[in-house]
Amino acid sequence: MHLLDEARLAVSLPPPADRMAIRRRAHVSRERLAAELGCHIISVARWERGTRNPRGELRRRYARLLQLLDEVATAAESGRAEAS
Questions:
Q1: C or N: which end of the chain has fewer Cβ atoms within 10 Å?
Q2: Closest to 10 in 3D by CA, of 70, 71, 56
Q3: C-alpha distances in Å from residue 5, one per residue of 46, 56, 60, 77
Q4: Among 1.10.260, 1.10.760, 3.10.450, 3.30.9, what is the CATH number of 3-83?
Q5: Which tens digit of pLDDT belongs to each residue from 11-25?
Q6: Kind and range of the H or E element at 73?
Q7: pTM over 0.85
């Protein structure tokens, strides 16, 4: 990943409600997301409520993971729509 891409991810997180929606659309539990990020499930819940935000490297990894989950969920939804 290029420096500018990393910088964008570090500062850009979707709004809290969107974070939860992305995770749910991808059928990923808070527990699984927390395990993947190496953090506590309570942290993920707080990020999704908007009472806290991750910082530093964890913020970058969380933003990237949300981006990838969103892409996966969108592709799956698109595939279901085409199959209908």
A1: C
A2: 56
A3: 25, 14, 10, 26
A4: 1.10.260
A5: 689 999 999 999 999
A6: helix 56-83
A7: no
